[in-house]
Design goal:
One of its GO terms (biological process) is L-methionine salvage from methylthioadenosine. The chain is α/β, with parallel strands linked by helices and about 350 residues long. The chain folds into 2 domains: about 120 residues, Four Helix Bundle (Hemerythrin (Met), subunit A) (Up-down Bundle); about 210 residues, Rossmann fold (3-Layer(aba) Sandwich). It contains 11 helices and 16 strands. It has a 7-stranded mixed β-sheet with strand order 6-5-4-7-10-15-16, sandwiched between helices. The longest helix has 27 residues. It is globular. It starts with 9 loop residues before the first strand and ends with a helix. The relative contact order is 0.12. The structure holds 5-S-methyl-1-O-phosphono-5-thio-D-ribulose (MRU).
């Protein structure tokens, strides 16, 4: 295991999927046990497990459970797979993993389980590779800023953007890691800070809205983020707030790196306008930790992802290689048609 990588968000127990309950971190380290595909779909929708690659992996294990539950009933199996697919709409990794399982055809549950294991292992290897590729862009003494959680918790291990930060940290290149709190689910303060500190990497949190000032003060040279879906022209869907960070970074001459495995690339969509953006319950904004803060009667608009146009991305790191200044032409060189 490379340095600074001690956490896994899931465990396959042979007949069930055990998930670290990310809603309760860092206060409580607890797990939930999913013994059915429906329970996995519910866990994905309710954010027990989250992060694009991690929900793809959980979906694949959910499919293994669907195979067991349905036996030879292909209609029942299809219904369970459709339920898993619908659990969250923006991260394409979920549909990608389920398509990969469906492509196996009429196999037994053991074969589906082996494919889910392979998806998880390949994701970890992709992250380690992206860590090396991305860290090569970081100059010694850099301050870096990340958004949301893209670490071991969000993936098969090591992380995407956080994997690059881990590799750059291990190489002695990072002077300081800054992490946005990431309203409203606080993935930055709850999850990124927890996993970095557990792995011995110091982190400084800031309110999401403080990031432009941090850039103006010259404290960072890179913003490094993950992605939930990247379209054929290089547009990037990621956690709400990413678009604003990219605009501020360009204004201040700070470079902007996106790190994502090829399972996040959706060459079937021409541009970001075609990405389904998930909107969640307004209550997630109106209350914090179950305590209502907003004035009674206030409504809330709660898109949980946004789309950063390709022209604001300096470097896209994938395990297949790096795309500098992503565009339809540079993306096609690496991904051709469908990844
Ligand atoms: O709503 P979440 O927590 O699932 O959103 C996660 C993100 O937006 C991550 O940045 C993205 O999935 C990349 S994770 C390697």
């Amino acid at each position: 295991m490379p340095d600074h990588d001690s956490i896994r968000p899931f465990r396959w127990a042979g007949d069930s999927l055990i998930l670290l309950d990310q809603r309760r971190l860092p206060e409580e380290v607890s797990e939930i046990c999913c013994t059915s595909a429906a329970k996995v779909a519910e866990a994905i929708a309710q954010m027990v497990v989250r992060g694009a690659p991690a929900i793809g992996i959980a979906g694949a294990y959910g499919a293994a459970l669907a195979w067991r539950e349905a036996g030879g009933d292909s209609g029942q199996r299809e219904r369970l797979l459709a339920q898993l697919r619908a659990a969250r709409p923006t991260a394409v990794n979920l549909a990608w993993a389920l398509d990969r399982i469906a492509a196996l055809g009429d196999v037994d549950a053991g074969r589906v389980e082996a494919e889910a294991n392979a998806i998880a292992e390949e994701d970890l290897a992709a992250n380690q590779r992206m860590g090396e590729l991305g860290a090569a862009y970081i100059d010694a003494g850099s301050g870096v800023l990340t958004h949301c959680n893209t670490g071991s918790l969000a993936t098969g291990g090591y992380g995407t953007a956080l994997g690059v930060i881990r590799s750059a940290w291990s190489g002695g290149l990072v002077a300081r890691v800054y992490a946005d709190e990431t309203r409203p689910w606080m993935q930055g303060s709850r999850l990124t800070a927890w996993e970095l500190l557990r792995d011995g990497i110091p982190v400084t949190l800031l309110a999401d809205s403080a990031a432009p000032l941090l850039m103006r003060d010259g404290a960072i040279s890179w913003v490094i983020v993950g992605a939930d879906r990247i379209t054929a022209n290089g547009d990037v869907a990621n956690k709400i707030g990413t678009y604003g960070l990219a605009i501020a970074a360009r204004h201040h001459g700070v470079r902007f790196m996106v790190v994502a495995p090829s399972s996040t690339v959706d060459m079937a969509l021409a541009c970001g306008d075609e990405i389904p953006v998930e909107h969640r319950d307004p209550e997630e904004l109106l209350a914090i930790g179950g305590k209502r803060l907003a004035a009674q009667g206030a409504d809330a608009w709660n898109p949980v992802f946004d789309v950063t146009p390709a022209e604001l991305v300096d470097v896209l790191v994938t395990e297949r290689g790096v795309v500098e200044k992503p565009s339809t032409a540079t993306m096609a060189k690496l991904f051709g048609g469908q990844p």
